Amino acid sequence: MADQSTVDVSGWEQGLAKLSDPSLRQSLARSMAVAGGKVLRDEAKQLAPKDSGRLSVSIYLAFKDSESSPERVVYSVTWNKKLAPHGHLIEFGHWQTHVAYLKDDGTWVSDPARKLRNPKWIAAHPFLRPASENASQAAHTAMVRRGAERLPELLAGARDEA
After folding, report:
1. From CA 94, how far away is CA 103, in angstroms rounded?
2. What is the DSSP string of 78-105?
3. Choosing a second label site near 137 at 20 to 30 A (CA), which of 9, 44, 79, 118?
4. Distance separating alpha carbons of residues 93 and 83, to the nearest angstrom
5. What is the pLDDT along the chain (162 residues), one digit of tens a residue?
6. Beta strands in the chain (DSSP E)
7. Which of 71, 60, 65 is nearest to 131 (CA)?
């Protein structure tokens, strides 16, 4: 049985050379980026603290249209700031200056009328940075595996159109 972490990429250079249509190349790149991004997203969801309200469920993979071009595709793993506006506080840590509590619906509330006498440092509980460190190899493998699946599909479609 073959090693599950390796993918045969022999012939890729010739295959890519046959993809003369830039939109087909971009389709391949996007498919590969999504495969890797999903691995990183899922790792970030696992690492997000479970007692942080809706942070974990708000983490998603986003295509960055403004940073992408026909030659480059950019995705990011981030969180929905409307669902979890406190995500940056958890990732980087923060000074708590007011009384805060977790509501029944999973949202944190800071009471502006109840200032703490002595602000306290709330340590960071990073989830995005460690996700990248922990899962980068698995993401790379997922990207290569997806490319190995998608390239023949695109080549077959390109032959059909020729």
Report:
1. 20
2. EE-TTT-TTHHHHHH-EEEEEEEEE-TT
3. 79
4. 19
5. 344 455 555 666 666 667 777 788 889 999 999 999 999 999 999 999 988 778 999 999 999 999 998 888 999 999 999 999 989 999 999 999 999 888 887 777 888 899 999 999 999 999 999 999 999 999 999 999 999 999 888 888 755 554
6. 59-63, 75-79, 94-102, 108-122
7. 60
Distances in whole angstroms, Cα of residue 55 to Cα of each of 47, 52, 60, 136: 11, 6, 10, 22
Residue 121 in tokens:
């440092």
Instruction: Please give the Cα distance from 77 to 97 (Å, whole number).
Output: 29
pTM of the full predicted structure?
Answer: 0.81
